[in-house]
Amino acid sequence: MALTRDAVLAALKDIEDPAGGDLVSQGRIKALNVEGTSVRFVIEVPGDKGEAFKPARDAAEAAVKALDGAETVSVVMTAHSAPKPPPDLKGASKPEPKGPQKVPGIDRIVAIASGKGGVGKSTVSANLACALAAEGRRVGLLDADVYGPSQPRMLGVSGRPASPDGKTILPLRNYGVTMMSIGLMMNEGQAVVWRGPMLMGALQQMMNQVQWGALDVLIVDLPPGTGDVQMTLSQKFQVDGAIIVSTPQDVALLDARKGIDMFTQLKVPLYGMIENMSTHVCSNCGHEEHIFGHGGVAKEAEKLGAPLLAEIPLHLDIRTASDGGAPVVVSKPDSAEAEAFRAMARRLVENNLA
Ligand SMILES: Nc1ncnc2c1ncn2[C@@H]1O[C@H](COP(=O)(O)OP(=O)(O)OP(=O)(O)O)[C@@H](O)[C@H]1O
Predict the structure, then answer these.
(1) Maximum alpha-carbon separation in the chain
(2) 247 touches ligand 1 (CB under 6 Å)
(3) Is ipTM over 0.95?
(4) Which end of the chain has less Cβ packing within 10 Å, N or C?
(5) 75 in the same domain as 115
(6) Helix axes 5-13, 50-65, angle to 10 degrees
């Protein structure tokens, strides 16, 4: 049987962490890569604790080597110069503002943004998250679209997240994606009138109190436009990259440009652009036509020197799949529509961006 990432993680979960718990739940395992019979990973330990972790490192290597199908195992131990600060669970202490912070346990934060509403940002976020999970990445999806949270419906999850200890929040999970939505913290149909400070508090709660576990990437589905949520996210948390979704039309592109300018000012790197609803493919006869034009985003991306990450067709299956709670990447993984998302996910993984 082929060796899987899950089997490796399960073996590592049995290894005690000198600081308590096990190596996986402490978030020590980074950059895990399983290719055929070869396994590579990094154990990240506090700077002054290298010696104390050596037995755990040896035990981890032995446990993975003992797995069926594992031949070469390469383990590297790296040390932080300073230990990560613990998350501020109560939000009671107010540290001095120190610029964007990394969230412990989350390797990368990738924001999915659009200038204009309804261009398919949430559809792209859900499909990209599922496609990255299918590539073996540990993926979180934070639905920060306070004006129209849609990820619970798109990922087919319902119910309110539990908080057994009253301090941390247990996220929901489907299709290998760990998901939390600001929408789940509000009553259904409640008009969102949150402004700056409330949004900031809610976002901080989502980042620090949700038990995301160790993630390779957290995808953040932002509200459309250039408002408080975008600013707070980029100023408080270290966002590794932004992906801008636009339709090919000029009007949507104009708004997308504003979004790009905002991320540039906030010093968030632009990973690239996505043209959604690029070509309409008739679900009956396969005839293709460009309802919203075609190629506008590619031209804009070229002008900006940014990669065009994908051209997603306008296809009935993409909408019905999302409405039905199983994104097309999950419900029709071999379709051309799913492939557009999967190719993008592979490209991001290959370039170590997600
Ligand atoms: N490529 C596509 N083909 C067919 N339907 C699509 C496609 N992309 C999005 N849709 C549909 O368009 C509608 C709007 O998409 P979505 O909710 O993802 O947009 P959005 O940009 O997140 O909107 P908002 O930010 O305003 O909530 C949804 O019904 C969705 O299913």
Answers:
(1) 66
(2) no
(3) yes
(4) N
(5) no
(6) 130
